[in-house]
From TrEMBL:
Pathway: Amino-acid biosynthesis; L-tryptophan biosynthesis; L-tryptophan from chorismate: step 3/5. This is N-(5'-phosphoribosyl)anthranilate isomerase. Keywords: Amino-acid biosynthesis, Aromatic amino acid biosynthesis, Isomerase, Tryptophan biosynthesis. Belongs to the TrpF family.
């Protein structure tokens, strides 16, 4: 099982997450997100030492040019598509990609079969108002028929209170975002520390 800290927008937090052994760190590229990274922060990532951590860039219905800028400047990264992108759109960049599926009910999970080229599928909470970042948990009982360890990423409202339950579902990866923030878009080193420690301890049980 792997862990991703998403929505990082400053170097101190990024450095800490990498030192703590996060498998993935996520950077939001979507204009409407309060966690969208700045141009200066993006520029700093070109020469950043990620150690053993893999950067993931999160897009919502981007243009081809927007994606290509990341592919060109930070080639050893993963693309995460969180909008209405098709499998054909996502795979054209010849880069490992993840596709978000917004789960509202069991029918939502039928979309899993639409993205055969994805390296992994991120299961996120459905919202009428946004493409993610809701901070809310969907009904995890819907996942009983899915082998979550087969490249499924569990996301949406995971925090210190429900992380143990998330670990017990044995997904391939757990995605933490608002659950390690002290306020909107402000990552908290202490919460990240507790979450990663709990995650590692849960792996041993």
């Amino acid at each position: 099982m792997k862990i991703k800290i998403c929505g990082i927008s400053n170097t101190e937090i990024l450095q800490y997450a990498c030192e703590m052994g996060a498998d993935f760190t996520g950077f939001i590229m979507a204009d409407k997100s309060p966690r969208k990274i700045s141009k200066d922060f993006l520029a700093s990532l070109k020469n950043f030492d990620f150690q053993k951590t893999t950067p993931v860039f999160v897009f919502v219905n981007p243009t081809i040019d927007e994606v290509m800028k990341i592919v060109t400047s930070i080639p050893k990264s993963i693309l995460q598509f969180h909008g209405d992108e098709s499998n054909e759109f996502c795979k054209q960049f010849n880069q490992p990609f993840w596709k978000a599926i917004r789960v509202e009910n069991s029918k939502s999970l039928e979309q899993i079969h639409d993205f055969s080229s994805a390296e992994a599928l991120l299961l996120e909470t459905h919202s009428i108002d946004s493409y993610g970042g809701t901070g809310k948990v969907f009904d995890w009982s819907l996942l009983k028929k899915i082998e979550l360890d087969k490249q499924f990423i569990l996301a949406g409202g995971i925090n210190l209170q429900n992380l143990s339950e998330a670990i017990s579902l044995k997904p391939w990866c757990i995605d933490l975002n608002s659950g390690v923030e002290s306020s909107l878009a402000l990552k908290d080193i202490n919460l990240i520390d507790q979450a990663i420690t709990m995650f590692k301890d849960g792996q041993l049980n």
